[in-house]
Amino acid sequence: ESQITARRDSAVYRVAGLLLKRPVVNAQLISSELGIPITNVYRYVEPLAGYGIIVEFTDQTRNRAWCA
Fold it and tell me: What's the distance, CA 68 to chain centroid?
């Protein structure tokens, strides 16, 4: 949490919290677990990748997945 610089009410924190119980995620899982529209998932995932909290391991432009 100390690495995240997003607003306190941002869904970035909700995604980070999900990583505690699901360390490997994809956009569909995040969308279904947190009720975030699939089109908005990347808005919250990209900052976490930038902070080094998650790493994308699929090297694809579609069906990407990340691990914490």
Answer: 9
Q: Give residue for tokens 């677990």.
A: 33
Q: Tokens representing 10?
A: 């941002």
Helix (H) or strand (E) holding 28, with range, is: helix 27-34
Residue 7: pLDDT band (50, 70, 90) is low
Closest by Cα among 8, 48, 45 to 30: 45
Q: Which two tokens stand for residue 57?
A: 């391991």
d(CA 52, CA 54) in angstroms, rounded, equals 6
Strands laid side by side in the 55-56 sheet: 24-26, 65-67, 55-56
pTM of the model: 0.82
